[in-house]
Amino acid sequence: MKNIRTNLVLASVVLLISACASNPKSTSLLDQVRIDYVQAQGNPKIATYAALEMQSATEALAKANAAAKERESLETVDKLAYLAKQKIALATEVASKKSSESDIASSAAIRDQVRLDQRTQQADQARVKAEEAERSAQAARDAAATATQQKNLAQANEAQAQRQAAEASAKNLQLEAQLAELAAKKTERGLVITLGDVLFGTDLARLNADGTRMAQRLATVLQQNPQRVVLVEGFADSTGKTQHNQELSERRAMAVRDALLDMGVARERISQRGYGESYPVAANDTAANRQLNRRVEIVLSDDRGVITPRK
Amino acid sequence: MTACNSMKAPATADVAVSQAAVENASQADGTEFAPADMQAAREKLALAKKALAAKDYKAATDYANQAQADAKLAQAKAGSAKAQSVSATLQEDIRVLRTELDRAGAQ
User: Fold this and answer.
1) A114 reaches B (C-beta below 8 A)
2) In a domain, A160, yes or no
3) Domain identity same for A89 and A177
């Protein structure tokens, strides 16, 4: 039912248009302007930025529409439609311009911020570089100070070493002089001091006065050379029982040891052994030779406290 | 004639207003940015002046109004084109600055 009525209305409109072809209710230009107008209405920028221009365009279009409704001449309708068209375009352009200007304002603010960020970053980087430079300068200063310190230390060490070398050499000279007094012999085992039989009472394991003096000299050497140790070796001739001779050699070695202990030499620096009849230095055929065999040999270690063992 | 004479003053004013609008648009670089609209405005202004001289005041007013609409549009087009150009330049500036910032920051 509704469709039929609509169709009737449409038919009458067609009839009217046909009847009034010379003075139409619209023109192709006006139709176009109406489309432009609808588009402009949908443009949010125009609503925001060009309300006044849009108002003017609305009024111009209303005049054109009115002229068309009043069936004014095609020229009159088109004239008014043209004005409306230009005003709609004007509103569009004005909206576009103001929108761009708004963008410019916010972009300028953003650009300024970015520039500020850039300067901040440059300042930060410059500061970091300066700090790095200061750190490396400090490191260089520290290194220089350390080098100077090390140089001074090295010089001090060298001076000390020279002093010690001088002292050592003085000590060696002194030692040599003292050992010469002790009649020390240089052997492949080191320095060996021989305390002869005459320094002991006959068949006694006790030093006489001369023997004690020798021991005192040796004790002095040992006190002045604390890195050195001694091995006291006792020997006997072949007269009498082997057992007796062994014991005698041990006792004489111990007698020397005890003397050194009495003179303040530390026990751990002295070792002693008895060899009995072994290692004679002469044949046991005469009294003089046998006296040579009855002896105590004191082996003085090297600077490191090492004594080469008897082969 | 009376009716026609009564339209003389407003028509003259309309033409003067249009003349001013065309000059403004021209100064605002309308010729450069909207040559077709400027051309139309100038032609219609000339027609308006001609009609005014011929005492056809109605035509003079019509042409003057159209010339004014064309000139205003030309001026607005020049303005929006310039603003868009400035906006685009700024955007490019920002893009370049940000690139520099990022590159410098990455170092």
Assistant:
1) yes
2) no
3) no
